[in-house]
Amino acid sequence: YLLQIQSSQPGAGLQFCFWCPLTAFWSCLWTGVFYIDNDISILIGAPKGNTTQPNIIEGGAVYLCSWNQTGCSIINFDQHGNRYFYINDINTQVEFKSHQWFGATVRSNGNSTLACAPRYYWRTEHDTPFADLTGTCYLSVDGLKTFVEYAPCRTERHGPAGQGYCQGGFSVDFTKVRHLFVEPSLYLLCQLISATTEEIVKAYYPSYFLLAVSGQIQTRQVQGSYDDSYLGEGSVVRGATNKINPVDKNERKRKGSLSVGVITGSLALVYDAFQMGSYFVSVIIASLDDLVVGAPMFMLRGSNGRLEELGKVYIYLQKGPLLLELCKSNLLGPQAFSRFGSSLAPLGDLNQDGFNDMAIGCPYGGEDNQGLVYIFNGHVDGLMDTPTQSLSGQWASSTFPASFGFALRGNTDLDQNGYPDLMVGAFGADKAVLYRARPIVSAVTSLTVKPTMFNQEEKTCLLIGHGSLVYINIYTIYILHFPGFVVEVQLDSVKQNQRESIRRTLFVESQQPSMVKSFQLSKGERLCHEENIYLRADEEFRDKLSPIYISLNFSLDPQASLDQYGLSPILDYQTKQHLQQKAQIQLDCGEDNICVPDLKLAVYGTEIYLGDENYLSLTFNARNEGEGGAYEAGLYVALPAEADYSGIARSNASLTQLTCSYEAENLTRYLVCDLGNPMKSGTSLWAGLRFTVPRLKDTYKTLQIGFQIRSKNVNNSESEVVQFELKVAAMATVIMQGVSRPDKFIFPPPNWKVHHSLGQEQDVGPELQHVHELVNNGPSVLSHSTFEVKCPLKAHGQELLYPVEVVTQGPISCSSKTTLNALKLKVKTHKSNTEHHIQRREVDRDHLADHFNLTCIGAVECWQVHCDVGLLEKGGRSKKVLTTLMWNKPDSHLWVPVWIIILAVLVGLLLLALLIYLLYKLGFFKRSDPYGTTMEKAELKPQASSEA
């Protein structure tokens, strides 16, 4: 709930704060609260505003704004322009109100209101050309009806002795005993002046510039060595004092550091700054006798080694009379250059927990540097480390940051609903915002579940349609403190990260895993409520191990009507809106109900082959050797991309029949097989899985499949991963067959004539063909294989065969170390005679070669010619193709040269003569006639003669 209040003059500014008196950059609080006829109004300063004062430029103004109405009206504290005084008969200007920042300080207390102009100038000595920055204030004690001027620093003397640089009204406040503190700055040394409102009104006379206020007290000035020390530069810290004594500086110069003087009772305490230039005590708030000090330019070295201006807020807790102790946990700004701690405002006890809360401004915080205000709740040790609420500015300015949070004012109940509100000024946007505090509900809630452990076998209740089931009592107790609003309570038996829980327990009343109920409670009323839930049947859920979580969530009904002030309540930030208890199912794990399995796994299989469908069967043995069951145990098989699951092995009756399904985890496919819920201790099961591996590549030597048993147990829930390696092999069935054409060869052939001049292949001799056929019936492709044919070219040192050519058909390439057709004979065209082989075979899936012809010509002897055909692959194999050669001796007339015949006759005659000579020498021709006489020769019969 916001109330936007804007100045009637654009650019006038609603409040202005500044860091130091000369540079106009000091942050403080310039708002007040005033009561007119029981209507709460807000006083907002506009130090750069214009009024009806004649010849005054940006003299400043104060506006009166009703918190429940729009628009503001200006308060005429001072309607006069600059005043003049006759000096030596010359009308001389003695005061300068232009740019005096009237309204930079505004305070109210009951019907008393004080507004000051700390940059008001007064011509102290009339013969000097310059004026002194003395400052002035205007006081009203009758509800803004009449006004009196109070300028305690306006004296007759110029310079420091005459308080010429006093800037009276730099910071002001009313004390509990209705004393008025005016904090002037003298040579950057703070001086405190105090007077009662009655004494100021009594001493006022409008025609006099210099007035003496009876009973006015002030701190004395110190030695000149403390000039520019900024000692005490800050806000007035209020206390119940009747006497103000000088600040004890322990005769020690601060050399530019900042300190704060705390006036309480009759003693002044000095607290030193912790960092030079941090503007320690640029704003200071005292709340319930404790002290909060802002240092908006505090710097801290970041991770990159550079100093970052974060701002810091120091908290001093009063541990005893005049004993303030610095808290260990002070607040550090969350964003660099946000000026965290530029403004502070006590908020009172927002959540009514007995500790005051605090608002801290960051006028340059937020994403767009529009400004932030943080709400910190108090506790016994100071303020919380983190804010409970963050207020952000809603405006942006093109020329100047909106500076939302530049000024804060709190601890005042503007709407009178019993809770203090907060005013936030946005100097750069000329706006102020009222934040109304909503009623805060404090609640104490408890949740009890009974029993916390139960045996699902013990059925203790009967539900229609569900049989006897286990039930759980839930006792919920709510202790809520707020005025008559509806609270919604949600009971839930499902934990968000447990998807199985929704199938385990249901509420008896709603038959659902959750239920929502609304209760109307008054302040201080207590509520006790009981509900029952039941555990579903054993076969209806799997998760028996994880606890059953019962949770309670409650919130205020957003549809409830608003209170009499138009506000809806909110829950205190410390209220626990979510409670959770749990119950467990009794397990077979001993008295401690903790199961510790010991899962073992072994896998067995065979090798697979390239190019095959690879109908693979793997057998595994899963065991639980632990002391307790493994719940929701499953076999997880990480499938490679080359493999597909095809089913459970059913060939062996001893194998367990499993239920398996696919799951995906990231980019890995898993086959998950249920091994039991639970897989009890001592379990040992054998099962088989069937796969196909159709997408193997010839670059694989092995293929890995990962196996693991997983369970939902907390302890020892998994087995070791078994990376089973399948050996990838190449297997091919190769058929080699060959034939010789002709298979028998007669040499020499009939009518064969030897040609002395060789021109054609038939001149060499008859043709001999060896035809070889190779068939690869797979499944693998044979790679890097060599088919080798060996034939004898010579026998017993004589030429036998003359190789002419090799004719191939199919995916084969042949080469020979022996030159084919070395004589370059004319080769006739050979027609392949292997068509019947191709027609006879089906088209092969993979083959090394079809067939080829080896043509060899020529033979001189009757030898048995054979060719060894070998397939050289892992040792290879061989086959011989035989050709039988038979010698032929047919009749034939051969021409013999004459010289051979003559030589043969002569040799024959020579041999005959030699024979006759030998016979002669042996007496062959001198032997006696065995028949005697001639007569006896005559009597020989012709037959005998002839036989002889």
UniProtKB/TrEMBL annotation:
Q: Does the keyword Lipoprotein apply?
A: no
Mention one GO molecular function.
metal ion binding
Subcellular location per the Swiss-Prot or TrEMBL entry:
Membrane
Could you provide one GO biological process annotation from this protein's UniProt record? integrin-mediated signaling pathway
- List the transmembrane segments: 894-920
Membrane topology of this protein? Single-pass type I membrane protein
Q: Of which family is this protein a member?
A: Belongs to the integrin alpha chain family.
Q: What is the protein name for this chain? A: Integrin alpha-5-like
Q: Which organism is it from?
A: Gouania willdenowi (Blunt-snouted clingfish)
